[in-house]
Structure formats: structure tokens, C-alpha cells
Specification:
Distance between the termini: 17 Å
Strand order of the largest sheet: 1-2
Oligomer: single chain
Number of domains: 1
Shape: globular
Length: about 250
Amino acid sequence: MNAGLHIQNSVGSDCCGQCTCGEAAAPNPARQLKLISLLLDYPQDELFTLGKELRAAVYELGFDNEARQALHGFIDRLLAVDPMQAQATWSETFDRGRAMSLLMFEHIHGESRDRGQAMVDLMDTYRRNGFEIDSRELPDYLPLLLEYLSQRSEAEGREWLGHLNQILSLLAARAEERESPYAQLFELLIKHSGLQPDLATFRRRAANEERDDTPEAMDKVWEEEAVKFGPQAPATDACAPNRFVERSAGA
């Protein structure tokens, strides 16, 4: 099977989309992750033609009433704006600074060598289970990981999300602090894990953090990167992601 956030396969539906055709279906945890991965990913233009299918999928995948309300609200808010505006909002949320990064190993390992090896190991896990990536995303990109988990057992999905629970909790808290609707998606993933973290603690931490997505913070990062990759930069084998690229190229 190939990875990649294929919109039609994610939300294909025969429902009328008006949410009046009966009660929600039995829960389908794996496909629930597929839908969340789609909504968390960069909003491609095609997504904005599938409002009816997205709303219907929320019912057909068996989300509980609280989750259905959150997802319908998120979908309505996302699709109410021009695609370019939604895409700009996504980029401002997840591509400016590292605090909201959707690359999970960046939160765990930072820029250490361990991050490169972790990505190699994750790629090997994907391949052992017949999951070939057909996108340019790194293997620890959260929407891609969720798509992989949507092909696995419910127990495996819960285990993975349990391991990531603190990261997801902090992302939820940071998104809420920034008044981003994406906070709802992170909270749904936390709920999916079956754990109940103390979100209030993470919200206090997020409220006291210095933002890393301001112009001043971004300028500081660029200055640091210029020094890191300047004439006296370390040898290429000191850059963890390179190990992943070499391993993938030779696979």
C-alpha cells in the first residue's frame, strides 16, 4: 500500500451529508485517524470541494457526540474561508517556529543524531508493514504517521498515540493559546489514545512560554542557522537527517 493523504479515499461517502439520516454508526477508530490526518494536513484545494463528504464521514466513522460537534465546527470554519487563506493559516500555524511542528521527532530529539536514527527506524517499520511513502514528507510527519496507524490495529494506534501523548498535549495547549482551531484535532488524538493527561498543566506551560513564531524569534533562528551552516560547519555526518536520506536512497 502507498502512503499519501488521498482525499477521496478518506471521505468517500454515500450519505446525504445533511446529518439527518439516523444515528452515528459504530465507531471505526482506524478510519477516524484517517479523517483526522486529512484535516490536520496542509489543506489542498481539492479539500474545499468535499464539504458534504467530510461532514458525512464524521457520522459514518462513529465519533461520539462531543467529537462530532468539534469536527463539524472545525470543518465549517476551515471551509468557510478561501483556500489560499486557509493554506496561509496552516503555514503560519505549523511552519513558523518549532513549537508547533508536526514533525514528532523534532519535539523528542531536536537536531541530535538520535533524530536521524529514529526516522530510519520508523521508515523501516513502515516498509516492514507494506507501507510505502509516495509523498515528500519525512516519516515522522504527524498526518503521515496517522495515516499509517489508520491501516493498523486499534491497539497499535492507541499505543503510538500514548507514546506521543505529552507532545500532543503540549501541541493542543499551544494551539489553544494561539486561538487556533487545530487545538480540537490534537485533543481528539489525545482522547483516542485512551489517556487522560492533565491538560491544565500543559496550558499553564504554554501560556508562560516565549513564542517562537514572532518576527523577532524567526530572525534569531535564521541568525543561528547562518552560524551553524557557515564556513566552519561540522562534517556532513554530524547532520542527523542526512543519515536518513542515505539509508532511504539505498533501500
